[in-house]
Amino acid sequence: MNFPDNSPYSQKDVSKNTYFTVKTLFIIMAKFSAEELLQAYAMGERDFRGLDLRGVSLFDTNLGDADFSDSNLENAYLPYCQLNRIVATATNLRQSELGDAQLYQANLAAADLEGARMMRVNLRSANLEQANLAGANLQGADLRSANLRQANLQGANLQQANLEQADLTGTQVQRCNFFRATGVDLSHAMCDATTICPDGHFYG
Question: Is the predicted pLDDT of residue 1 greater than 70, yes or no?
Answer without folding.
Answer: no
